[in-house]
Design a protein that fits this description.
The chain is mainly α and 137 residues long. It has helices at residues 4-12, 17-24, 28-35, 43-53, 57-62, 95-132. Helix 2 (17-24) packs across helix 3. The longest helix is centred in the last third of the chain and has 38 residues, at 95-132. The chain is elongated and about 65 Å long. The chain starts with a helix and ends in a 5-residue tail after the last helix.
Length: 137
């Protein structure tokens, strides 16, 4: 399979987009955009797919290597959706997952910082624009 979206679609199998999205804890719209390669899932979503579906991360990201972890040869497509009122899915306490969680948290902190910095720059730009073009040009 050539794209990440097509591999995510293959992992979903015969489950509906609603069921699989609910199982992953994301919206159906997000899943649709991933499957159609309009956007890419973040590392947490990728790790959730790999952990819950026992998919090799290398295969999911590149299409290379074994699809499933360990000796698993095929997956059942009728995995029940998670309870929407229950707690979010918890990934295992493996060192790699914990490292990924820390990396995701750091990236989110950086993203928030950059968002605030961009807002400030846009405001500064508007002030400068008004000084240079006081008549609104």
């Amino acid at each position: 399979m050539a794209t990440l979206g097509k591999r995510i679609r293959a992992v979903r199998g015969s489950r509906s987009q609603n069921v699989f999205a609910h199982f992953l804890g994301i919206s159906k719209g997000a899943l649709v955009s991933y499957e159609h390669d309009k956007s890419s899932p973040n590392a947490k979503i990728l790790m959730t797919i790999c952990v819950l579906e026992r998919i090799e991360i290398k295969w999911l990201l590149t299409g290379e290597g074994a699809r499933y972890q360990g000796d698993v040869e095929e997956r059942v497509d009728d995995v029940p959706p998670r309870d929407s009122d229950g707690p979010p899915i918890q990934l295992s306490g493996c060192p790699h997952c914990m490292w990924m969680e820390k990396l995701i948290d750091k990236m989110e902190e950086d993203r928030r910082h950059l968002l605030l910095e961009n807002k400030k720059l846009l405001m500064d730009n508007a002030v400068l624009h008004n000084k240079v073009h006081p008549n609104g040009f």
